[in-house]
Q: What sequence folds into this?
């Protein structure tokens, strides 16, 4: 009986160690798989012009804003990622807001940026109508999208510019269709809170901690924000 019990204990120990190794390897594989995904935090905020009491709100699709309201994006890369931000206003002109000409679309891990940079904001002017913002994030560089925009810039003032805009929007839609997911983003509180620049040099800044969302995708992500500017 003692000999049998000793063998049983040794066998059980071997099984436990074996299971532990399997669990460790599985967790490592999961971590490695997750690290290969596109992951980032973002916030799209509006500083609504309410006189002496401006209101900071999270911008969602079909949002209603007024002339004088200000807009800013916040991005935090949790994986090495490429980001692009485009805008089309009521006039139909397409503008690439990010990256600017001097910026790299690639953000390294843990890099935090606000768009526009510094104390600048995107402010809604007097021309009312539909405003659309296109946010694209990707694990790989979207060279075709970049080339299409460069081509558009050469045609910007010509009659064929609208054809070039359509090509860019079609490419954005292709990225979106090829990377659809039902559970892409969730609210997240940024640890320690992140304060971006205020609307004036004297302002203490904007806290994005309660307005950010975390996105996790395999390869790419595309989000369209439509604003009813009235």
A:
């Amino acid at each position: 009986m003692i000999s049998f019990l000793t063998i049983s204990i040794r066998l059980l120990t071997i099984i436990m160690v074996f299971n532990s190794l399997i669990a460790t390897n599985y967790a490592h594989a999961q971590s490695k798989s997750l690290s290969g995904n596109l992951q980032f935090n973002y916030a799209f905020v509006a500083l609504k012009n309410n006189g002496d009491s401006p209101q900071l709100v999270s911008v969602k699709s079909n949002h209603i804003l007024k002339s004088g309201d200000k807009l800013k994006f916040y991005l935090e890369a949790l994986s090495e990622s490429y980001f692009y931000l485009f805008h089309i206003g009521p006039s139909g002109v397409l503008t690439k807001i990010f990256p600017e000409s001097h910026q790299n679309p690639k953000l390294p891990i843990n890099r935090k940026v606000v768009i526009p940079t510094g104390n600048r904001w995107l402010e809604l002017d007097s021309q009312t109508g539909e405003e659309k913002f296109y946010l694209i994030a990707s694990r790989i560089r979207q060279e075709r999208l970049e080339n299409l925009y460069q081509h558009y810039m050469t045609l910007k003032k010509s009659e064929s510019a609208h054809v070039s805009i359509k090509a860019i929007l079609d490419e954005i839609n292709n990225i979106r269709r090829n990377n659809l997911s039902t559970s892409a983003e969730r609210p997240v509180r940024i640890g320690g809170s992140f304060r971006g620049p205020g609307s004036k040099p004297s302002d203490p800044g904007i806290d994005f901690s309660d307005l950010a969302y975390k996105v996790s995708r395999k390869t790419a992500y595309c989000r369209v924000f439509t604003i009813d500017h009235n």
The radius of gyration is 24 Å.
